[in-house]
Design goal:
The protein is mostly helical. 76% of the residues lie in helices and 4% in strands. It has 34 helices and six strands. The longest helix has 22 residues. It is elongated. It starts with 6 loop residues before the first strand and ends with a helix.
Length: 698
């Protein structure tokens, strides 16, 4: 539904028609004024108030996005005004796909007739009126008039900067598109009128921002570059620095980190030259982000630490909190969990102190990520749930979708695949609703991961196949490489090793091209895994050997431990038991140091398996016994089942009287975890153990 039937008058005729609606009203009447320019609304309302007594008009101005318009209208009616003007509909926020204030108006439409027996006129841009028509259709149906006002010549020049500020990530795609159309009109009017070059540059920058939000990077970059030329021609160094900053962000979004760093590097001396400490600190922060995305964590932390005292000196508490959170992110990437948690804690305190609920929610989410990386999934889920409540309360749809995805990842790590899929399925429509194509692609990839974990490889490949063209369409090579690697993993699990190697090879080229070192190391590890699954252990060891120094160079301790364990697995497969034990022995203290409980349990299990293969059954029993409580603690049912199977097998081989009972439990657990082949092997072992026991007794 949209406001199609509007009165197309000149300004004088429209004002007269609006006056007649108000003056002839007997009780409650509804009028809607479509005025896309804020300064136009100001001038029109001033003209009407001049004709009437100023005190005769009550104005309800929406300043709080969560305001109850029903209550505000009832309060305004107590002064018995000639009319009530409502301004600021465009500031209202959606929650859960709807706008509570508009829902309230629609539900209370009949009550308003008696509680507000005066004309009510809503003044808003077209997209905000359209939203009201869609979300409050019963209220819209009783309108007495809709009036559209066109701006006078020159108005666009006055409002270009205001229009640029009005685009909100949390707005629905249709609303963002309406704002973009408004900016296009502004630009056309500037071309026809007497607007200044600065007005034109600001309008171009606003259109570029809109294109960036709609994941049209090529359009955004072209518009930013047009604005940049104008700012440089007129010598506007503030505008020039801001555009360089924005171009850097576009490059970073495309994983072109060297380009991003070069652009930020041009903006930084300008901010310093014009004595703009806030711009300087913001740019240092972005340079830190780019370094972190290149896995240059020491460089990133050094840049963040340059920005931090600037934010503190100028009293920018939000900037200080953001930097502390970024320092926490850098620590987390290096598996320094305690440092990361301490930094997030400092940031969270500031966000709460200044009332920045979105920052508090983001930090709770980061704390949840830290807990998840330590395999503390119950703690992670509790933190994600806190963040989710805040995001929903403030109507932050992107944050809501991101946390739902994180909750899905936690469920996936706990082998709760149906729960994970249900959470991803909640996130996916939100990303689509707000037009966040990157989030959509990430969620499709996560759904593919869940399908792969369930052994549904054709479904996984289909989901990865939906994600891949989105990453390519929005120019995100990092997402493209990640998806190619996931497709390679699925191919390997289907036994299609040549396909897996080809896909991993494509991913590896992209990671190297964009300088993502952890992605490069991960892919070398995947190639090593494929070689190992084909029984080509020397090739696997060579590939793992290429990955290991990269992980060590970038300080990725978890990656280093994973490679050491993979090297141990390859040695074990070659019956090089002493080498395997030595490699597992290097991995185990790293997992313990960084708090990676799953990695610790997996390594203990591998050591137990090695001991069992060497017929050192008491050692094997002890090692499996250490792994089991960890798997139970982190909720890894599959890991627990495999460790219990090894434990039971070692007990049986050692002639333990408890072996039959443990074997029965292991049979149930492996069957419940979908390990049917292993469950059947244990059943045969139980039968053999029972028969042997009976024979001895006989």
């Amino acid at each position: 539904m949209k406001p199609a039937s509007t009165a197309e008058f000149s300004e004088v005729e429209a004002l007269q028609a609006l006056e007649r609606m108000v003056q002839w009203a007997e009780g409650f009447r509804l009028g809607f004024v479509i005025a896309n320019h804020p300064t136009l609304v100001d001038s029109l309302t001033e003209k009407l108030e001049e004709r009437w007594r100023p005190e005769a008009v009550a104005t309800v101005s929406v300043e709080d996005p969560g305001v109850s318009l029903v209550s505000e209208l009832a309060r305004a009616a107590q002064g018995r005004p000639v009319a009530i003007f409502v301004r600021g509909l465009e500031r209202l926020r959606r929650r859960g796909g709807a706008t509570p204030a508009l829902r309230g108006l629609n539900l209370n439409r009949d009550w308003l007739r008696t509680a507000v027996p005066f004309p009510v006129v809503f003044w808003a841009p077209e997209y905000a009126i359209r939203r009201l028509a869609e979300e409050a259709p019963d209220l819209w149906a009783v309108r007495s008039g809709v009036f559209r006002f066109r701006p006078e010549a020159g108005t666009a020049a006055l409002t270009a900067a205001l229009a640029r500020q009005g685009i909100d990530w949390n707005a629905a795609p249709g609303e963002r598109r309406d704002r973009e159309v408004l900016l296009e009109h502004v630009l056309e009017e500037l071309d026809e009128g007497e607007g200044s070059p600065q007005d034109r540059a600001e309008a171009l920058a606003g259109l570029a921002q809109a294109a960036a939000m709609e994941n049209r990077p090529a359009d955004a970059i072209a518009l930013f570059e047009q604005a940049l030329r104008i700012y440089r021609e007129i010598g506007d160094r503030v505008g020039e620095a801001a555009i360089l900053w924005s171009l850097g962000q576009e490059a970073a979004m495309e994983a072109r980190y060297p380009d991003a760093i070069a652009l930020y590097g041009q903006a930084l001396p300008i901010y310093r030259d014009i004595s703009n400490p806030l711009g300087e600190a913001n740019t240092l922060e972005l340079l830190g982000h780019a370094a972190r995305m290149q896995d240059r964590y020491p460089d990133a932390m050094a840049l963040y630490e340059q920005a931090l005292p600037i934010y503190r000196e100028i009293g920018a508490r939000d900037g200080e909190a953001n930097i502390l959170r970024s320092l926490g992110d850098a620590a987390l990437a290096q598996d320094r969990f305690l440092d990361a948690i301490a930094l997030y804690g400092q940031a969270l305190s500031i966000y709460r102190e200044i009332g920045a609920r979105d920052g508090a929610a983001s930090t709770l989410e980061s704390l949840g990520n830290a807990a998840a990386m330590q395999d503390r999934y119950p703690d992670a889920i509790a933190l994600f749930d806190q963040a989710l409540r805040i995001y929903r309360d403030i109507g932050a749809r992107p944050g809501e979708a991101t946390v739902l995805q994180s909750l899905g990842q936690a469920a996936l790590a706990q082998d709760r695949y149906p729960d994970a899929i249900a959470l991803y399925d909640q996130a996916l429509p939100i990303y689509r609703e707000i037009g966040a194509r990157l989030g959509e692609a990430n969620t499709l990839q996560s759904l593919g991961n869940a399908a792969a974990m369930e052994g549904r490889y054709p479904d996984a490949i289909a989901l990865y196949g939906q994600a891949l063209p989105i990453y390519r369409d929005i120019g995100n090579p990092l997402g493209e490489a990640n998806t190619l690697q996931s497709l390679g993993n699925a191919a390997a699990m289907e036994g299609r090793y040549p396909d897996a190697i080809a896909l991993d090879g494509q991913a590896l080229s992209i990671y190297r091209e964009i300088g993502v070192r952890d992605g490069e190391a991960n892919t070398l590890q995947s190639l090593g895994n494929a070689a190992a699954m084909e029984g080509r252990y020397p090739d696997a060891i060579a590939l793992y050997g290429q990955a290991l120094p990269i992980y060590r160079e970038i300080g990725a301790r978890r990656g280093e431990a994973n490679i050491l364990r993979s090297l141990g697995d390859a040695a074990l497969a070659q019956d090089r038991f002493l080498d395997a034990i030595a490699l597992y022995g290097q991995a185990l203290p790293i997992y313990r140091e960084i708090g990676a409980r799953r990695g610790e349990a997996n390594t203990l299990q591998s050591l137990g398996e090695t001991a069992r293969m060497q017929d050192r059954y008491p050692d094997a029993i002890a090692l499996y016994g250490q792994a089991l409580p960890i798997y139970r603690e982190i909720g890894d049912r599959r890991g627990e089942a495999i460790a219990l199977a090894g434990h039971a097998t070692a007990l049986a081989a050692n002639g333990s009287p408890s072996a039959p009972l443990v074997l029965e439990e292991a049979i149930r657990r492996t069957a419940g975890a979908g390990l049917e082949e292993q469950s059947q092997e244990l059943r045969r072992l139980l039968d053999a153990t029972t028969a042997s026991t009976e024979q001895i007794e006989t």
